[in-house]
Recover the amino acids of this structure.
């Protein structure tokens, strides 16, 4: 059983429609796929219809933008009620922050002599609810300024680069509580990837577990083997679910092919059991796993 619990479609910053993503997952030999677009559920309905039609098990989720102790933390949320008002309010604020910084990024790029405008970004972001840096990067690719998103982030848009602009991210503790109250479960995405400097650490994760955190994404392309071993040991010490996934963005992210990392079936079923318990405790109407 091959399970990939972290992927993106054009509803956020992937390059495939939800239908295309499901088809690619089937072609890659996956049995279970989670759609976890950034801060939006806009792709859920199309993905569910495609999964039913193509015989793929689908878990509906999101990747939420949060902040904890002055560090950005991405949080995977699975199977929450998407209508839960506090969660909706946070998503609206995060999406407004994503969209709101685009004009400033464009202005900074123009100061660097790069002839890009908002129409370029709108074309790159067609069909998404979560316009942001990846679409500015795509506009730069379309203009021939850079070869791909990676170069765009490395030269212009990443932290500390000349066109980087900060934005709102929801408090991590609040979001974990909101997802739990909405009947869902949470997993910290690639916790020690990129520039996280090993935060959150084991003590942080233990405290987050007390308020509802279910697991950590251990097997991810941003984690080398020693990092994975250390995170797996922490998960074992705390009894957290261990997940693995591709963080697939279609052509938008290199070396993140569907199924490049997977979640063990026993860990997947632990996660679903926790989701079922959270749903029952919340009393809310939560989405079911789409099964063939």
């Amino acid at each position: 059983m091959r399970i990939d619990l972290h992927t993106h479609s054009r509803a956020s910053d992937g390059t495939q429609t939800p239908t295309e993503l499901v088809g690619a997952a089937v072609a890659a030999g996956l049995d279970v796929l989670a759609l976890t677009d950034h801060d939006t559920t806009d792709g859920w309905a199309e993905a569910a219809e495609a999964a039913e039609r193509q015989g793929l098990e689908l878990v509906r989720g999101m990747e939420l933008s949060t902040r904890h102790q002055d560090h950005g933390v991405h949080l995977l949320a699975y199977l929450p009620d998407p209508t839960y008002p506090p969660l909706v309010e946070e998503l609206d604020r995060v999406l407004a922050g994503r969209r709101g910084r685009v004009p400033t990024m464009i202005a900074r790029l123009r100061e660097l002599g790069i002839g890009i405008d908002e129409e370029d970004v709108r074309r790159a972001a067609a069909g998404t609810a979560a316009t942001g840096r990846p679409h500015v990067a795509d506009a730069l690719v379309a203009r021939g300024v850079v070869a791909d998103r990676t170069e765009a982030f490395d030269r212009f848009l990443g932290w500390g680069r000349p066109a980087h602009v900060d934005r709102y991210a929801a408090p991590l503790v609040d979001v974990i509580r909101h997802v739990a109250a909405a009947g869902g479960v949470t997993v910290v995405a690639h916790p020690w990837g990129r520039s996280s400097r090993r935060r959150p650490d084991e003590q942080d994760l233990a405290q987050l577990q007390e308020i509802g955190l279910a697991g950590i994404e251990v097997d991810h392309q941003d984690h080398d083997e020693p990092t994975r071993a250390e995170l797996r040991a922490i998960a074992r010490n705390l009894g957290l679910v261990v997940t693995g996934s591709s963080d697939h963005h279609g052509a938008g992210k290199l070396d993140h092919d569907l199924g490049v990392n997977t979640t063990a079936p026993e860990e997947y079923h632990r996660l679903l059991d926790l989701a079922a318990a959270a749903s029952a405790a919340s009393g809310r109407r939560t989405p079911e796993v789409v099964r063939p």
Notes: The longest helix spans residues 265-282. The first strand starts at residue 3 and ends at 7.
